[in-house]
Design a protein that fits this description.
The protein contains four helices and six strands. It is α+β, with helices and mostly antiparallel strands. Strands 2-1-6-5-4-3 form a six-stranded mixed β-sheet.
Length: 135
């Protein structure tokens, strides 16, 4: 069980570092070929929705980041790990490149690890605040 915890912690840490570095390809390499990816919210935003393939992970980040005015902010409050599952609790913020309006949102990101890769990512945020900044 401790080995699973170490692998989970390492993958989540690498994911967060990849996001911080803006490295979509490095992030995608952390995932299994088939992915259970869910980011609920306003489907008018091009990055919102589900993904099923590893190949869609890098595109998610490239699409989302291209809509932002800048690098934004992210503050990780805690990371909870239980075997092959983990949750990151954080606050994120940025501004829309198209409207200039900013948003800030608490987030919870659920991860599941299988075969030493991330197989599931479900991100929960204040999708209303994010959507308002872009519409």
């Amino acid at each position: 069980m401790e080995q699973n915890r170490d692998i989970t912690e390492s993958l989540i840490t690498n994911f967060l570092q990849g996001v911080g570095a803006g490295d979509a390809d490095a992030i995608a390499e952390l995932f299994t070929d088939r992915v259970d990816w869910k980011v609920p919210g306003n489907s008018a935003l091009p990055w919102i929705g589900t993904r099923n393939e590893k190949s869609e992970v890098a595109e998610y980040f490239r699409t989302m980041w291209s809509q932002f005015a800048g690098p934004g902010m992210a503050e990780v409050h805690s990371i909870v790990i239980d075997g092959n599952e983990g949750v990151v609790l954080a606050t994120i913020g940025n501004s829309s490149a198209s409207t200039g309006r900013s948003f800030q949102s608490p987030v919870a990101i659920y991860f599941q690890i299988d075969d030493r890769k991330i197989s599931k990512l479900h991100l929960h945020e204040d999708s209303w605040a994010v959507s308002r900044a872009f519409m």
